[in-house]
């Protein structure tokens, strides 16, 4: 391997620095970094330059994963020794430059190229060793004062990261564990992304929260460090054979005083990023490093040996983790969302190429955008949902025309999103167009036409035009009753929608009577714990709250919660929502509860700008429910209502 200085051209777009950190040793951190580095270097036809930096100077080991005969090759320690000497020379004269200019002068004088070695002739994979392991290495390491070096030029490490990211698509740093000064440099000053490796256990998780809080606080509070820092928890050495213990450490077990790493990291992200709701459910469903011989014995790069990539392989595990880490998706984004986004990005590349390729991907792109909008709407992310639906509709209008079923499906979804955002006039206009098209093409009694009329009635009701809304909804209900009978599910859904309009008009007693009929029919037809039955119970409980029948409402909501606990488990979003609603009623009744939810303070600063909509969440006051302001419809409830109005069928795409 060459001993001369490297010569790498600058990238057209800057790369990024990723630090791998563990509070305790034994997590397989270096092994994971080496495997991730090999996979990243294989991307883009193996043309993406990737640099690994072994910054675990007290216990260097990254070079063992790659053939490295050059024991005397200089590395991290020698590089910063040279930086220290350059700073001493410059500090002896008058100070005429600011910190950034000084840092770049020093780094240019030292040059990183002679400290980096290529370690794979089949890809652009490079390594900066910990240092030259001669007899003087321990003494020289002990003499390196990282804090002193930082204060002599605070911009040095940040500018070092910037210079490397001009030439490497990814820079992966293997950090020292614990609370050392060098670990602080690697986790706080250098990276854009921070991979937190841990094994399920208190000793491994201890210290991670403090480190992340300190790093994110530093980034927010220092003017020159207003850069985002994304964290990616990575559980390691997971025993796949013991399901009970695996879930116990992931979810928590109060009887064993185990907090659970998933709720712990969800709370950490809420606190550090000022988010109100965070779920890592989908992320931790997919991202867990299983215990294998690759973790236990030797220094082998599993992805080089494990070429098959089946679902039991380490290759598949690392590739799954990379589907979040590589593109920069947030760990609170679901696997469904990132898969759709990947397909959309690929289709957009084809669209940019123009010609026949653009025509071929136009409608698949519209379909994926429509699916993404539906996913965002279910999650209550209305702004990105609206954007996805608008783009999907535009593509379908141009290619298919205004009256095509897929175009109308996009209009339906867009109108629903507009209604949820309170843009009622725009929603009304779209829904009137949909009704007119359905009537003209399908006739007045087609289920799709009736669903379109019901959606228009819901919008008219929110506009306060309740006489028109009820007249339209009554016609829908009468048609369903005549065509399919009074106990058909579509008829019951129409009755439930009518009850909502009655509530808006103030006919609470009549609305209650209709809801009781719907609930009784759902129990008889679907069973006590069917989702439609549970939604009917929740709707009736809302009405009873307005009537100040708190005990009865509490009984219904408790039944809903118990059903969700049995069927979905304690961590499902529907269970959490049912629990919160029950607690609200208990607070009104003065019933003690150990589960009163806390709402963290929401804040956002300049360092968080590229999180965009992901950090914008409306706050909700708790304990202020009165007879006249029973829960407003949440986004999920509105989606469920739209599904009911559509007759329980998914609109065509």
From TrEMBL:
InterPro entries: NLR-like (IPR053137), P-loop_NTPase (IPR027417), TPR-like_helical_dom_sf (IPR011990), TPR_rpt (IPR019734). The keyword Chloroplast does not apply. Keywords: TPR repeat. It comes from the Bacteria. TPR repeats lie at residues 366-399. This is Tetratricopeptide repeat protein. It comes from Duganella margarita. The lineage of its organism: Bacteria, Pseudomonadati, Pseudomonadota, Betaproteobacteria, Burkholderiales.
């Amino acid at each position: 391997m060459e001993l001369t200085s490297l010569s790498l051209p600058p990238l057209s777009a800057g790369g990024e620095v990723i630090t791998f950190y563990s509070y305790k040793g034994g997590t397989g951190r270096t092994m994971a970094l080496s495997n991730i580095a090999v996979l990243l270097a294989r991307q883009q036809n193996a043309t993406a330059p990737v640099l690994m930096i072994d910054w675990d100077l007290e216990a260097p080991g990254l070079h063992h994963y790659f053939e490295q005969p050059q024991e005397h090759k200089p590395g991290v320690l020698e590089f910063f020794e040279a930086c220290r000497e350059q700073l001493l020379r410059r500090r002896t004269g008058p100070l005429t430059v600011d910190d950034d200019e000084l840092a770049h002068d020093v780094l240019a004088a030292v040059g990183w190229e002679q400290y980096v070695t290529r370690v794979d002739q089949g890809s652009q994979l490079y390594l900066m060793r910990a240092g030259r392991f001669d007899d003087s290495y321990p003494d020289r390491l002990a003499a390196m004062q990282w804090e002193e070096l930082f204060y002599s030029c605070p911009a040095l490490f940040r500018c070092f990261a910037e210079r490397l990211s001009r030439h490497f698509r990814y820079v992966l740093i293997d950090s020292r564990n614990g609370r050392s000064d060098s670990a602080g440099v690697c986790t706080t000053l250098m990276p854009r992304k921070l991979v937190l490796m841990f094994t399920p256990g208190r000793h491994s998780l201890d210290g991670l929260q403090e480190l992340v809080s300190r790093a994110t606080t530093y980034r927010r509070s220092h003017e020159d460090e207003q850069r985002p820092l994304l964290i990616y928890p990575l559980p390691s050495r997971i025993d796949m054979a013991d399901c009970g213990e695996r879930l116990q450490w992931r979810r928590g077990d109060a009887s064993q005083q185990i907090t659970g790493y998933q709720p712990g990291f969800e709370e950490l992200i809420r606190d550090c990023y000022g988010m109100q709701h965070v779920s890592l459910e989908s992320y931790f469903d997919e991202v867990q490093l299983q215990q294998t011989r690759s973790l236990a014995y030797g220094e082998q790069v599993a992805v080089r040996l494990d070429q098959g990539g089946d679902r039991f392989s380490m290759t598949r595990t690392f590739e799954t983790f990379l589907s979040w880490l590589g593109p920069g998706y947030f760990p609170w984004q679901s696997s469904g969302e990132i898969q759709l986004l990947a397909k959309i990005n690929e289709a957009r590349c084809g669209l940019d190429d123009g010609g026949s390729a653009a025509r071929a991907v136009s409608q698949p792109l519209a379909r994926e955008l429509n699916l993404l909008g539906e996913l965002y709407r279910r999650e209550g992310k209305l702004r990105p949902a609206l954007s996805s639906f608008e783009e999907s509709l535009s593509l379908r209008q141009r290619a298919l025309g205004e009256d095509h079923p897929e175009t109308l499906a996009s209009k339906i979804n867009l109108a629903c999103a507009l209604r949820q955002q309170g843009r009622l006039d725009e929603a009304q206009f779209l829904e009137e167009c949909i009704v007119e098209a359905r009537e003209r093409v399908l006739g007045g009694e087609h289920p799709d036409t009736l669903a379109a009329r019901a959606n228009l009635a819901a919008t008219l009701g929110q506009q306060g035009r309740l006489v028109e809304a009820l007249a339209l909804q009554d016609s829908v209900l009468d048609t369903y009753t005549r065509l399919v009978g009074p106990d058909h599910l579509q008829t019951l859904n129409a009755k439930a929608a009518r009850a909502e309009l009655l509530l808006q008009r103030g006919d609470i007693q009549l609305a209650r009577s209709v809801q009781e009929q719907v609930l009784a029919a759902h129990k008889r037809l679907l069973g006590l714990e069917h989702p439609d039955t549970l939604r009917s119970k929740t709707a009736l409980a809302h009405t009873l709250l307005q009537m100040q029948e708190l005990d009865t409402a509490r009984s219904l909501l408790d039944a809903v919660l118990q059903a969700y606990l049995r069927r979905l488990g304690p961590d499902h979003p529907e269970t959490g929502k049912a629990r919160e609603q029950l607690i609200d009623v208990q607070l009104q009744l003065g019933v003690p509860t150990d589960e009163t939810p806390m709402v963290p303070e929401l804040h956002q600063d300049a360092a968080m700008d590229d999180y965009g909509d992901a950090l914008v969440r409306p706050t909700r006051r708790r304990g202020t429910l009165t007879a006249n302001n029973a829960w407003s419809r949440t986004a999920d409830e509105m989606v469920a209502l739209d599904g009911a109005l559509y007759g329980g069928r998914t609109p065509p795409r």
